[in-house]
Design brief:
Length: 146
């Protein structure tokens, strides 16, 4: 059994880990504007990395307009999030979080997405890249009504 990372927002954390925590907090709160404010104007989000139902070309979502559209297509449709980060590795201006994101979707469905979630920040602590490594088929296999 893995060790659950307990985030203490009062404790000093590397900037990328702090940005990742703030991103999860904003998503959980449904705070689109707060979430967008965490990103640099030219940020790129790849969630998941590569072609997917959210990004057919696999080139990522670029800039505030692209990130806003990504929110509307994905995060904005989730009724509730649960994040369990089992491990977190900060190095330089990046952090790789290993964990499970559970999403509760309309119609009473629940999906668990295991993955590695990598955030990179600039010198101001704004997210310049977020790359989520997870497998669509594996996540969809966990879909169930609750």
């Amino acid at each position: 059994m893995g060790v659950e990372v307990c985030w203490d927002p009062a404790a000093e954390q590397p900037p990328a880990r702090e940005a990742a925590f703030k991103s999860m907090t904003a998503a959980t709160a449904g705070d689109k504007d707060g979430w967008l404010a965490l990103f640099a104007p030219d940020a790129v989000v790849e969630d998941p990395v590569g072609p997917s139902m959210f990004d057919e070309e696999g080139k990522g979502h670029h800039g505030r307009d692209g990130l806003s559209a990504f929110w509307d297509k994905t995060i904005g449709n989730v009724e509730k999030f649960e994040f369990v980060i089992r491990d977190s590795h900060a190095a330089g201006s990046e952090v790789a979080n290993v964990g499970t994101i559970t999403t509760f979707l309309p119609g009473g469905y629940r999906v668990d997405t295991d993955g590695v979630f990598v955030y990179g920040v600039d010198e101001d602590g704004l997210v310049v890249s977020m790359r989520a490594f997870w497998e669509t088929e594996r996540a969809m296999a966990t879909a169930r009504q609750v």
